[in-house]
Amino acid sequence: xxxxxxxxxxxxxxxxxxxxxxxxxxxxxxxxxxxxxxxxxxxxxxxxxxxxxxxxxxxxxxxxxxxxxxxxxxxxxxxxxxxxxxxxxxxxxxxxxxxxxxxxxxxxxxxxxxxxxxxxxxxxxxxxxxxxxxxxxxxxxxxxxxxxxxxxxxxxxxxxxxxxxxxxxxxxxxxxxxxxxxxxxxxxxxxxxxxxxxxxxxxxxxxxxxxxxxxxxxxxxxxxxxxxxxxxxxxxxxxxxxxxxxxxxxxxxxxxxxxxxxxxxxxxxxxxxxxxxxxxxxxxxxxxxxxxxxxxxxxxxxxxxxxxxxxxxxxxxxxxxxxxxxxxxxxxxxxxxxxxxxxxxxxxxxxxxxxxxxxxxxxxxxxxxxxxxxxxxxxxxxxxxxxxxxxxxxxxxxxxxxxxxxxxxxxxxxxxxxxxxxxxxxxxxxxxxxxxxxxxxxxxxxxxxxxxxxxxxxxxxxxxxxxxxxxxxxxxxxxxxxxxxxxxxxxxxx
Length: 494
Description:
Blueprint lengths: L1 E5 L6 H15 L5 E4 L9 H4 L14 H6 L7 E4 L7 H5 L5 E4 L2 E3 L3 E6 L2 E6 L5 H4 L13 H4 L5 H7 L8 E4 L12 H7 L4 H6 L5 H10 L3 E4 L6 E6 L5 E6 L10 E5 L10 E3 L1 H9 L28 H10 L37 H10 L4 H8 L19 H6 L53 E2 L32
Helix pairs in contact: 11-12
């Protein structure tokens, strides 16, 4: 299977698809799948732009809305994870993944899918220690703090991903794993990005929690973006297996933002998105750990009295498979959940407000089928907002076997939320005070970059688009914000 890997998309879908078309014509190949590593910017309208944490000059509608409305259709199957420049209100509708437009699939806060026999895992967002142990408490409309905390990764998603047992072919993260620079050409990286030097020397470049995932999951490939440069590395694990790491740039002219890789796949399987049974079962088994409060919560671990191993048994997986009537194909049940941008009647800035939280029929159906909670529903219950949405089950009846559910009380789907996991009362963790810098500085990332690119990489990449994309980079001093602090270790006993 030929897969196109994109770094940061930044809303430039038309340019990305056109670049792929040029590559297909030039190389006489056919790309089967496009994977985007964050900052996708699925903005449907002007209101979505207000939910995106970017400086005003970057708050542009771009071209996604054309694919959302059906004016254009994605020419190849596209899947993506979220970054730190997203229309977070829209992505919050799909916490477990779903279609944001026809043929364009979001993987959720974290997720695992199977495409043509290739098992792909992903984690959305970036790391910020002060929010890492918080619940998913955010809800649109956002204030300036929650507009940023909403895209910070949580320990729940890391905990869930650590339950995976089967091998992964590909893993996606927006941020880099901490320390990955040790396994590649560090001198070339620092030549290209000299302002990384302080963080490299202090061991702070990259994301500490996903470094743990790298060494535990050991995927064949790991793709990232975020730092806006191309960087390759080879990680050899204790069992001699190898992870091929590649980070890519953002979609701009003369930047190395796209790479084609050829991944072995099941030639008998269709190139379509399928749920991963083990991942669905993990979601089901860990639903009680979901917290939606702005408080510190800690995942269970060794030394406590609570179960901490949720790697599914075969019996667990068969129970979940029965819920889906033995059909794991993700239904093509996309439907618009908000008005689209009208190019002929754009709204004035004074007329635009942040939209309120909305339920998405895809998430409602998945949660009812799997008997798990939608975080937005739980947050709304806390603040007294009533969000109701019925699902037309006739459209996707093949994915629900009501007879089976009613005949087995253990498999009953209930609309009543599961009793929530109560947080332990623990002292605030001790963190590096530098980690409490304003998240607003995340948004100056584009201004703090250099446009210089080294041409010393060996693998062929696309480094320009068919249409030039305007670059608004500012000549501010090159400086790189320290993003990470060492995680603290806490042993919990109940």
